[in-house]
Amino acid sequence: MTQTTGSGWRSWMVIFLVIGVVWLLVDRYRYVLYDPDATPRAITPRGDLAGDEKTNIEVFQHASPSVVYITSLAIQRDRFSMNLHEIPQGTGSGFIWNSQGHIITNFHVIQNASGAKVTLADHSTWDARLVGVAPDQDLAVLSINAPRSRLKPLPIGRSAGLQVGQNVFAIGNPFGLDQTLTTGIISALGREINSVSGRTIPDVIQTDAAINPGNSGGPLLDSAGRLIGVNTAIYSPSGSSAGIGFAVPVDTVNRVVPQLIRHGRVVRPGLGGRFANDATAQRMGINGVLTVDVTEGSAAQAAGLQGMRRNRQGELVFGDVIVGIEQEPVGSLDDLMRLLHRYNVGDTVRVVIVRDGQRMALPVTLQALN
Prior knowledge:
Thrombin, subunit H, 3 domains, 6-stranded antiparallel barrel, 7 helices, 22 strands, membrane, hydrolase, serine protease, transmembrane helix, protease
């Protein structure tokens, strides 16, 4: 026992001795480590910014004042007082459409919300009113009562002439971080994605610009700072950006938004007829959309489209089979609706049909559908 205790004291003495030596060495050489005459190093001139950097900066400076932060609200009842309160439900992005205070965002950003608030780039926050929604295109229009001096609409471009490889810019509020710029290229054109209503959104733009939760509803811009799409979805196993983002094309936005502002809903252009579902047409061996009947006084009747009928012998005769709109083929009801949605009420389109084995084209002036 005595031997063990003595060995322990010797160990402690060695430790204290080592600490003392280290302290003496540090104290001796600390004045060697420090330089009382140290000053900041001279700055190396960087030269001019690269051309692409200048473009990035210019696009952001011009477009960011038009991008807004949207907070959707939900009603919650206080468990103690039983009073109702509005609380934040989610966040997203949007942009200023015009100087009247109309704000564009995705439908899914404000879906099921009891209200919304819009925060402008100057950090002022405004109560928003819902003007109209288009779930099939995942678009919504809000309105705020802000002074015109605070409202800077985005310039509008076209999506019809876009090319894969073009530079694009996304501005939004990913993860609640407002006024965030990401850059990339157009990765593909003509994609199709499903909207929240289950309908197909055609002609969607695919980009590798980082799109994350919170970017939804924000603008996709070209290198001239013009709106070319509304960021709406990502493909990602993790829920964050994987370099595959999708934007509703601006040509769709520019067609739908005025209808939402005028009517609060999309006025769907159509032919004015009843058509067989795809399963029925397939069972009959029909490749296209079978016209079952034509509504009295409709655009289809005025153009001469024929539904199913009986001949003089009492035999049932197939109605016209729609196989194309203009130059685009039609193989299903979804194809027909997708193609018609590219046009406005009052537009005249060539409807290609097969009647009694003969192929022909009928000019139809599209009507508004209820």
